[in-house]
Design goal:
It is built from 11 helices and 14 strands. The protein has about 300 residues and is an alpha/beta fold. The chain folds into 2 domains: about 220 residues, P-loop containing nucleotide triphosphate hydrolases (Rossmann fold), CATH 3.40.50; about 60 residues, Protein-tyrosine phosphatase receptor IA-2 ectodomain (Alpha-Beta Plaits).
Length: about 300
């Protein structure tokens, strides 16, 4: 649905985005991760057709985004920008009505009512935007991005400033859009949210540093250690564990082993422990958190930059 190929955008001599390619399929959420200044917002603005890349192309549903196709394709995109950008003198409902009018929606009232209700904005529908809190403005801006039911959503920090209850409601809404076949590119600093919500994660810092499913990225940085919890005292089974790792250790009901290839060796370890009389409660590979993966890629990129 979204195909960005070799995007480059410079400001002066500095490349803010450098030869970046990524794609987002139908019914997929891709989380865009990177430190401040990494080029996330610039990338999304190029995909939305708001700024032109100095090199590279963007295609939406197989159609290249150009001056000729831009107007039509932008109508298929909902874009939540980092700053809500509401009309302060208009009410919440009026903001949504004006935006719906830009897309020539014949009967937007029903859609607006549903969005107001879903985002708990109905009691504030007549309130001027200037009087809203930051979190409330964020919800109105999200409703605005959804009002024309676009098949492509570009969301820059969609849950910033929202309380936990509304954050969960927004996540549910995004999952519904994914289930409906929408392609979603979501920029966020919330790594827990990215891991919970996304199908794939793109880590960028001017360039694309990593792009895959969270579990695959974590597996690439696997420590090779597994932890096995048994019923009773684990030290009784150290001899069996040390057939696979001479440095295996036991503490309480837990065994810890270092394996060269946990994916293929772990079943053999479990069989050996069972044969030695152990009742296995659980066996888990020691995997890094997505935060560890993110920091590894970003820090490696920083270290590789010329001084």
């Amino acid at each position: 649905m979204i195909a960005a190929s070799h995007l480059t955008r410079r400001y002066g001599t500095r490349a803010v985005v450098d030869d970046l390619s990524l794609d987002v399929g139908r019914g997929e959420i891709v989380a865009l991760l990177g430190p401040n200044g990494a080029g996330k917002t610039t990338t999304m603005r190029m995909i939305a057709g708001l700024i032109r890349p100095h090199a590279g192309t963007v295609a939406i549903d197989g159609v290249e985004l150009t001056e000729a196709s831009g107007s039509r394709l932008r109508g298929r995109i909902g874009f939540l920008t980092e700053a809500p950008g509401l009309w302060d003198r208009l009410s919440v409902r009026e903001n949504l009505e004006v935006y719906a009018g830009l897309y020539a929606m014949a009967d937007p009232g029903r859609v607006i009512d549903r969005l107001l209700d879903r985002l708990e904005l109905t009691p504030h529908a007549a309130v001027r935007s200037a009087e809203l809190s930051k979190g409330m403005k964020q919800k109105v801006a999200l409703a605005r991005a959804l009002v024309h039911d676009p098949p492509v959503l570009l969301l820059d920090e969609p849950t910033a400033g929202l309380d936990p209850e509304i954050t969960r409601s927004v996540r549910d809404l995004l999952e519904e859009r994914r289930a409906a076949g929408c392609a979603l590119l979501v920029s966020t600093h919330n790594l827990d949210e990215a891991e919970r919500l996304s199908d794939r994660v793109a880590v960028i810092q001017q360039r694309l540093l990593a792009f895959d499913r969270p579990e695959v990225l974590k597996r690439r940085l696997s420590t090779g250690r597994i932890r096995i919890r048994v019923a009773g005292e684990a030290s009784r089974y150290l001899e069996a564990a040390r057939m696979f790792d001479r440095q295996a250790s036991a503490e309480g009901s837990r065994l810890a082993l270092q394996l060269a290839d946990p994916e293929t060796q772990a079943p053999a370890v479990v069989r050996a422990l069972v044969a030695a009389g152990a009742d296995i409660v659980e066996a888990q590979p020691e995997r890094p958190a997505l935060e560890d993966v993110y920091l590894r890629f970003v820090n490696t990129r920083t270290e590789q930059r010329p001084s």
